[in-house]
Structure formats: C-alpha cells, structure tokens
C-alpha cells in the first residue's frame, strides 16, 4: 500500500456539483499542476447520481465545492463527506472538520467555547425556562440569529425585552406544548391554562401551518461601533485572503452588503490567529468574520464556503512561510488554485505517513 501510494499519480475525483465555476477553476488549477509535472490524474464525477459511491471507488481524493446552502442541503453534503472520509478513507476536500458545523451557528458556538476562541458573548440554549430567565436579566440591544443563513438574512438587532420574548415564544412554543402534554395535560386543559400566554397563540399559529418551533434560541451581545466586518478566508493552515465588508447603509450588518473594501489595511495578527485556528482544528477551508470590541477582535461566525470572486479581487493573498513569517503575495489568485495546492499538500502528508508505517 505504502509503495503503491508513493509511486503512482494521485487519482482525484472532481465532485460535480451545482457550483460549476468552482469546478472549472479546480480543473484549471489541476491542469496547471499536471503540466508542471505533478503526478496526478483527475476526472469529473457526478456525486448526485445514485451510484456515486461506486463511481468514487478508483479515486484517492475528492475535491468539490458543494452548493450545500440551507440546512437541508448542507446536511446532505455533510453525510457524504462523513461517509467518504470515515468509511471509505478518501482524502476529502473540504473535510469533516471544515463542514460539520456549516449552517449551524449553534454548533460553531460549541467549538468556539471548547477552543477558547474569542467571540461576542454568545448564548445558545435549548431550555425555554433558562432562555426566559436570561432574557429577563439581559441588557439590550442583543443580536439574535438563526443557526442557519447567510448574507445577514437571519440576523436581527433586538432592542427590547418585549421583542425578545416574542422571539422566545416563536422559538419554543412546540416544546412548551409537548412538555405540558407529557405532564398529563389534555388539549383543553392546556388551552384553559394558557389562553393568555403568547406562546400558546404562537403554537396555534405554527400548528395550523404544520410547523414546529425551532426549539432553541441563539443570541449574542451587540458589538457596537463596527462599520464593517473583517473577513479572513483561510485555506488549509497557510494561505489566506483578507478584506473588509462595509455595513449596509444605516444598518449594523455587513455580511451580504456587497460593499467590499480591499484598501483598508488588514492587521497581520488577525491573519495569523485565523491560520492558527485552522491548523489547530484541521480545517481545509474556513472564512472567519471578525468584529472589533474595545480594540480586540472577536469572531462572529465561520463558514467553509464563500463566493470565490471576492477573494480573487483582493490585491493579493497571504502565505505562511516555514519560518512562520506571513508574506503578502501580490496578484489575483482564485481560491480554487489554493484549495488544489492545499489538497496536494494534504495528499503528500498522507503519503509520507503511509510510507513511514
Ligand atoms: N454580535 C454582533 N454584534 C454586532 N454586529 C454583528 C454581530 N454579529 C453579526 N453582526 C453583523 O451582522 C452581520 C451578519 O452576521 P453573521 O453572524 O456573520 O451572519 P451571516 O451568516 O448572515 O453572515 C455580520 O457581517 C456583522 O456585520
Ligand atoms: Mg457572516
């Protein structure tokens, strides 16, 4: 096995997904590596077909940029990444570590807390009593978020306790109803006890729409005085792009504004810190959204996927050198090129491990 791996070219499956621009640019980067003498073969493989697992049998590695937006789509992607990596032992870019928390700010909050990543003070709770107690004690405004979403679509500034309690009722009404049922209350008993409660009417409304309340609330302290957020997009543990995203007019939210600022300087400590997290957590791709609180950065959220044309437009990218210095490399480079570079570096690491065994 070790010998075999050492001698033959790597066989890469380029996972065909909806984001064909990424695929074409992955292919261009792979063509370039092969022309420069790197021993590799690749094919485009349709991962949507029912026989996708058999089709992947001959390959060592899968590189893809799945569409995967939205909870449902992203779950389907995560399942595939998991099976490929944990059961078929393929090299998958992006890996499980990069993808398992995608479209879930709640999941990210676990990682941030365990790893001591600086963030705005964050509450993610599935306990409706705790949530209500906390909200009654809280100082407003607070930033409420759904776990999923992009472009600031599910992010709101909540200025009053009253609005927060409305969100609480929407978030937990099904759970409260179920709990009352499990304590032996019938429909009429619940109605009689709860007619004057906001959650009950929310339940009524959601029930008629055949909905179910999310069962959690997520909020963060409001980090004031940020007219932009800083995005650091790291590839592997050694390549990065940095740019600022200005807020929408008269709004606290930057994500999705399209108001990109490539001119404003990027603090090197932010690039280094994000590369460090990516190394520690074994991320293949991670975009970090940074805000600043009392002069120090905090990370609002992370995601492995992004629109490739924005980093491409940056004046250059950063590279971590073996002596741990960070060099700014001028010129426009597609992130796909760096994903491919990183994938091949991971392959080489794997091959060295196999030879050593
Ligand atoms: N805790 C916060 N305090 C102040 N502004 C925030 C906070 N969290 C997010 N924002 C702003 O809202 C935007 C969207 O939030 P984010 O969590 O990144 O959601 P999305 O997944 O939609 O990008 C951010 O780009 C930032 O400008
Ligand atoms: Mg964001």
Number of beta-strand segments: 15
Portion in strands: 15-25%
Taken from the alpha-carbon principal axes, the silhouette is globular
- The number of domains is 3
Q: How would you characterize the largest beta sheet?
A: 7 strands, antiparallel
List keywords for this structure.
3 domains; 15 strands; four-stranded parallel sheet; alpha+beta; 23% strand; Rossmann fold; seven-stranded antiparallel sheet; binds magnesium ion; D-amino Acid Aminotransferase, Chain A, domain 1; binds adenosine-5'-diphosphate
Secondary structure topology:
Elements: H1 2-7, E1 10-16, H2 20-35, E2 40-46, H3 52-55, E3 61-63, H4 71-87, E4 91-93, H5 96-99, H6 105-115, E5 122-125, H7 128-137, E6 142-145, E7 155-158, H8 161-182, H9 187-194, H10 198-208, E8 217-221, E9 228-235, E10 239-246, E11 260-261, H11 268-280, E12 285-293, E13 296-303, H12 309-313, E14 316-320, E15 326-330, H13 335-356
Parallel strand pairs: 1-2, 1-3, 3-4
Antiparallel strand pairs: 5-8, 6-7, 6-8, 9-10, 9-12, 10-11, 10-14, 12-13, 14-15
Helix pairs in contact: 2-13, 7-8, 8-10
This protein binds adenosine-5'-diphosphate and magnesium ion.
Magnesium ion (MG) is lined by residues 255, 289, 301.
């Amino acid at each position: 096995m070790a010998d075999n791996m050492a001698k033959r070219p790597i066989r890469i499956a380029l996972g065909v997904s909806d984001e064909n621009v990424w695929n074409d640019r992955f292919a261009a980067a792979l063509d370039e590596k092969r022309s420069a003498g790197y021993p590799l073969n690749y094919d485009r493989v349709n991962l949507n077909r029912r026989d996708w697992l058999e089709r992947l049998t001959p390959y060592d590695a899968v590189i893809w940029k799945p569409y995967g937006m939205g909870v449902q789509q992203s779950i389907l992607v995560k399942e595939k990444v998991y099976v490929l990596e944990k059961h078929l032992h393929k090299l998958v870019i992006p890996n499980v570590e990069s993808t398992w928390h995608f479209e879930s700010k709640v999941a990210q909050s676990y990682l941030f807390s365990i790893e001591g990543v600086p963030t705005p003070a964050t509450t993610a709770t599935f306990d409706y009593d705790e949530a209500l107690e906390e909200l009654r004690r809280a100082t407003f405004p607070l930033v409420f978020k759904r776990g999923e979403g992009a472009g600031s679509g599910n992010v709101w500034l909540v200025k009053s306790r009253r609005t927060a309690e409305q969100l609480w009722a929407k978030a937990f009404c099904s759970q409260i109803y179920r709990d009352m049922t499990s304590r032996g209350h019938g429909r009429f008993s619940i109605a009689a006890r709860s007619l004057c409660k906001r959650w009950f009417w929310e339940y009524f409304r959601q029930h008629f729409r055949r909905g179910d309340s999310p069962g959690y609330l997520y909020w963060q302290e409001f980090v004031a005085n940020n007219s932009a957020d800083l995005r650091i997009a790291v590839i592997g543990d050694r390549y990065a792009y940095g740019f600022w995203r200005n807020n929408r007019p008269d709004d606290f939210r930057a994500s999705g504004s399209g108001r990109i600022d490539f001119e404003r300087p990027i603090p090197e400590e932010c690039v280094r810190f994000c590369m460090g997290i990516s190394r520690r957590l074994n991320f293949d791709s991670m975009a970090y959204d940074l805000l600043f609180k009392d002069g120090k950065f905090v990370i609002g959220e992370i995601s492995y996927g992004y629109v490739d044309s924005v980093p491409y437009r940056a004046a250059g990218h950063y590279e971590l050198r073996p002596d741990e210095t960070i060099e700014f490399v001028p010129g426009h480079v597609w992130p796909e090129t760096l994903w491919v570079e990183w994938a091949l570096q991971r392959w080489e690491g794997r091959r060295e491990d196999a030879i050593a065994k």
